[in-house]
Amino acid sequence: MSLSNDNNFNQLQLRVQFYSMPQNEWKKLRPHFPGYTSGLVKSEPGKFVMNPLYGFHAEKLYRMQPRRDDVWLLGFPKCGTTWTSELIWLLMNNCDTARASATHLIFRTPCIELPFLTSETELSPQMMNMLNAIEKMQSPRVLKSHLPFYLLHPDLLDTSKVVYIARNPKDAIVSFYHHTKLVKRHNFQGTLEEFAEYFMEDEILCSPFFPHVLDAWSKRHHPHLHFMFFEDLKKDLRGEIEKVADFLGKSPSDEQLAKITNHLRFDNLKHNDSVNNELGKRTGFMNKDGNFMRKGKTGDWKNHFGPDLNSKIDKWIERNLRGSDLTFITKLEQQD
């Protein structure tokens, strides 16, 4: 069923408006993000940052009807969504690593907002076809999104199972920085220190970080939500796979668990062409230098932050987590 044929399409209304990013913010960002040729928009309420094309069509995704046998994966960018979506797809498809390796992840677990992640001002027929293809996917679907809950269908949690993946903000900053330098539609030209400032000031794409994570954290006791951490995948990959399998009602055998645990080790995925997005270099989507799946290490921020920047980020984290019981692990003694 296409989006336009949904019986509730004309009844469900997104009570969020998108406006051009304030000139004082955009004037500062523009030289560092030459890829954003059409600017950026922010939502009210929420101050969610996104491309103008998404802002114009946000209601389309808000009205996207979830199915009872869907599995949705949510999370802030560069917090483990690629890794976790491969994990979920395998559990939902009888741990079939051969089929996973034969078909690119982008087709197996599509990102619903991907058609709008462009500086184009109109949705092309190709991108509209991509959006409609999600609606036509055979069940059970595995879908992913970097959108916060309030921009998704209000019945999502009561209808589908949702996995939320979180990562400590220090490593998320470093990973997103390298991502925006790699991907041409961002084409970030500044320093890590400048990027970290934009991140903390809620001015980068998909900001703000903490409201995104804290909203999901507040819903963690919902029976249809499994909240997990990138750092736990690094500590005990097989144990986390077993937890997700239990949440999804799957019972893989010991042999299957061993097989997909090996398949899902970060260094193996990094060299798996169906997952690592190296295709983006051949299609011109990404620059030649760098990798979409870079290190996948917890604590890599220590190789990037000086004392002053680290202190500033620590204070930012403390300020935003005040009054919450959410905590992040920023270093591990041992990790896969």
Automatic annotation (TrEMBL):
Domain of life where this protein originates: Eukaryota
Swiss-Prot/TrEMBL keywords: Transferase
Coiled-coil blocks: none
Gene Ontology molecular function, alphabetical: sulfotransferase activity
Similarity annotation: Belongs to the sulfotransferase 1 family.
Designated name of the protein: Sulfotransferase family cytosolic 1B member
Domain Sulfotransferase: 69-324
SUPFAM superfamilies: P-loop containing nucleoside triphosphate hydrolases
Stored Pfam families: Sulfotransfer_1
Keyword Transferase: yes
